[in-house]
Write a structure and sequence with these properties.
Helix content is 51%, strand content 3%. The chain is mainly alpha-helical. The radius of gyration is 20 Å and the shape is globular. The chain starts with a helix and ends in a 7-residue tail after the last helix. The structure holds 2-acetamido-2-deoxy-beta-D-glucopyranose (4 copies).
């Protein structure tokens, strides 16, 4: 058991670990406005003995992640220092990219929500990205509260509903348990294994990705009509991304701080617009163009084969060895296209 653990730790640290590169300080890798976001419940408003969180304001939503990362840090100490190996990092980093790249703004442009020139911190309920992310923030957060690892009880916190489509979003533990029950249960299973001293890093990744893909699956069609607000390239990218996440999940990508920070350099730094031709977008870096090209290719193959390719992929990704080798291969390719400035 220990031997297995330590050899896996060796693989993680020595063979896989991406170098910190220019960042000498882990805090440089945190998502935008992390320092400014609430890191404990007492920093939120209290009403009738309940903490009130508005997940439609960026720092307040980010604060939910910050509390989650802080409260789970103790379970990841055995995998490395400074909470760097906390696999929940993938969620706030992804949300930070959405914010930085303008994807949380009102795509219908009827309001100034999320725009630099308007209310930059506003998260628009009309943003497809913001809506999907809600179920990768509120659900893991409330399930953590329900699991008892957040230090408050289930009826002590409530989220504010968005200005419209209130019925599509659950705002507290019991409401989420009834409206998105399978995903809530899978996040609970993840936290149960997190609290067990016998869970390996690989086990935790498995339960994390199970819960992650279930959250997306449970709301898969709920926000399809949002896609019409977007340019064709961006809407295509959203559809593709939704498919690609299933492949990434099967790979059980270790969603740790350094690794996800590194991988996200390949994601589009702004919304795609009419006229963007992948992989020849001139203000994107080589890596961003290649990464988009590969993501598209995976989406297309999935489409052509009627998702038979996903079944096959899942089959081949069953063993840890295959997943490691595949990941290593992908990261080697990406490192070859590592110029960060536009080509
Ligand atoms: C890292 O950055 C944080 C915030 O900027 C600072 O408080 C901390 O002292 C830095 N740590 C190191 C080792 O430089
Ligand atoms: C949870 O939210 C629902 C509305 O979505 C509400 O009816 C219910 O009373 C809330 N439950 C608690 C415990 O606050
Ligand atoms: C798959 O094909 C359908 C029909 O051609 C298309 O509408 C859809 O956008 C495609 N999906 C992806 C992920 O490319
Ligand atoms: C890109 O990666 C190669 C090989 O890994 C390395 O030699 C080169 O310095 C890197 N370039 C940049 C800009 O990081």
């Amino acid at each position: 058991m220990m031997a297995l653990l330590s050899s896996w730790a060796c693989i993680l640290i020595v063979c896989f670990s991406l170098s910190l590169g220019e960042a000498a300080n882990l805090s440089d890798l945190y998502p935008p406005l992390w320092e400014e976001s609430p890191g404990q419940f007492s920093e939120y408003r209290v009403e009738n003995g309940k903490y009130i969180i508005n997940p439609w304001i960026y720092p307040e939503r980010m604060g939910m992640y910050k509390i989650l990362l802080t409260q789970t840090a103790r379970y990841f100490e055995k995998f490395g220092p400074e909470n760097e190996n906390n696999i929940l990092w993938g969620l706030p980093l992804q949300h930070g990219w959405q914010y930085k790249s303008g994807r949380l703004a009102d795509p219908s442009q009827r309001t100034d929500c999320g725009y630099e020139s308007g209310d930059r911190l506003c998260i628009s309920v009309d943003s497809w990205w913001a809506d999907m992310n809600y179920f990768l923030c509120a659900v893991p957060f409330l399930a953590a509260v329900d699991s008892g690892i957040m230090g408050i009880s289930s009826d002590q916190v409530t989220l504010l509903p968005p200005p419209k489509d209130e019925m599509k979003f659950c705002v507290n533990v019991s409401a989420c348990q009834s409206s998105i029950s399978t995903a809530m249960r899978k996040w609970n299973i993840f936290y149960k294994h997190l609290q067990s001293p016998f869970s390996s890093f690989e086990d935790l990744l498995k339960y994390l990705w199970d819960a992650h893909t279930q959250s997306l699956h449970d709301v898969s069609e709920r926000f399809d009509h949002r896609l019409e607000y977007y340019s064709k390239p961006e809407a295509d990218f959203e559809r593709t991304w939704f498919v690609d996440v299933k492949y990434i999940g099967a790979l059980r990508l270790p969603t740790t701080l350094i690794r996800i920070h590194e991988l996200q350099k390949g994601l589009p730094p702004r919304m795609l617009v009419k006229g963007d031709r992948i992989p020849f977008i001139s203000d994107f870096s080589q890596r961003q163009n290649i990464f988009l090209f590969v993501l598209n290719l995976v989406g297309d193959v999935n489409n052509w084969t009627g998702s038979l390719s996903l079944t096959i992929w899942n089959y081949f990704m069953k063993t840890q060895n295959a997943r490691e080798k595949t990941l290593e291969f992908i990261e080697t390719i990406l490192e070859k296209f590592n110029s960060t400035s536009p080509k």
